[in-house]
Amino acid sequence: MSEKWSPRTRAVHGGTRRSQYGEVSEAIFLTQGFVYETAEAAAQRFEAAGEDEFIYARYGNPTVAMFEERMALLEGAEDGFATASGMAAVSGALTAMLKAGDRVVSARALFGSCLYVLEEILTRYGVEVEFVDGTDLAAWEAAITPGTTAVFFESISNPTLEVVDIAAVSALAHKVGATVLIDNVFATPVYSDAIAQGADVVIYSATKHIDGQGRALGGIILGTKEFIRKTVEPYMKHTGGSMSPFTAWIMLKGLETMELRVRAQTASALALAEALQGHEALARVIYPGHASHAQNPLVQTQMGGKGGTVLSLDLVGGQETAFKFLNALSIPVISNNLGDAKSILTHPATTTHQRLPQDQKDALGITPGLVRMSVGIEDTDDLVADILQALEKAV
């Protein structure tokens, strides 16, 4: 029945398991272990656990399983494995499948922690990593050669919001038998069609839009049942990066309102981008959903024309002006999260991407004046007015 539901309905009801009490809100099974009626039953479960049988919370839990199933239904994946954080999902998905001598081709524009995993951790263990301009299909084609094991990119990059062509890059990767792994946070599960467009593995930081209210860290890896259960699960359950039952319950509650929040946030983000275009204090307004964005035609086909909940502003005058602007805001908060019900702004050059060498910041377009804004669910007119008054004070 759930296969026939729309994504919005799946996000509310998918994967629900009710106990004998028939609770409306999903139960939290706060237990690290499970009891077996007999020694023989324990031995049998360890040998081959059934679909709704559990051994240890690091391996699986009823509340966590509900979240995994709901996300898989929502994304159109066969299965999922929930993790302790978004970066546990990124590092877990990559590390679980790669070994010394393997080769990864990745977009250069990535979140700082993703870059660290690729540049510092994987290469330390003999994995070859090559970076390309994610928007340049010719560069992808030249780099994805026979022998490439995996291709990795953010579908929308952080923080300069470049959009990568999922279908085209996936087609290039599949020609040589490479697995396509996508960090899909900025696209959100609401606008994602990544698996249908060719992705093999889709990764989310559930900390962002899925929770949506700044309460908990979490992540999820989505893909085929074979990849999740034979590659990801053995690695994650032995290295300890699984999600807690309480966190899974929070994420289930977040999913119920996610589409309503994300669509409202997206509408406000577009309104802000339109209101700020051409402002004298801004060198650039970057928003994938606006016609001025270089990959806006791709956004029309890949995300149904919706640009997501995040925009970036590049202030004339650099860091000093950017800081004045941030400090003059009344409604948004200064923090480094995104996808929250509250509007959040951060200065990437001194926060999320602080440790990048200057030449890399320059190559990625992370200027001293760049500010990333995650748009919340506040009144749009209030947000526009507050941004405009802060810009006035900053220059």
Written description of the protein model:
This protein has 395 residues and is α/β, with parallel strands linked by helices. It folds into two domains: 2-254, Aspartate Aminotransferase, domain 2; 258-394, Alpha-Beta Complex (Aspartate Aminotransferase, domain 1), CATH 3.90.1150. Helix content is 41%, strand content 14%. The protein contains 14 helices and twelve strands. It has helices at 7-13, 39-47, 62-75, 86-97, 112-124, 137-143, 166-175, 188-191, 225-239, 245-276, 296-302, 318-328, 358-364, 380-394, and strands at residues 79-83, 103-107, 128-132, 150-154, 179-183, 201-205, 219-223, 282-286, 310-315, 333-334, 344-346, 370-374. The strands form two sheets. The protein has a seven-stranded mixed β-sheet with strand order 1-7-6-5-4-2-3, with helices on both faces. A five-stranded mixed β-sheet has the order 8-9-12-11-10. Helix 1 runs antiparallel to helix 3 (62-75) and helix 1 (7-13) runs antiparallel to helix 10. The longest helix is centred in the middle third of the chain and has 32 residues, at 245-276. The chain starts with 6 loop residues before the first helix and ends with a helix.
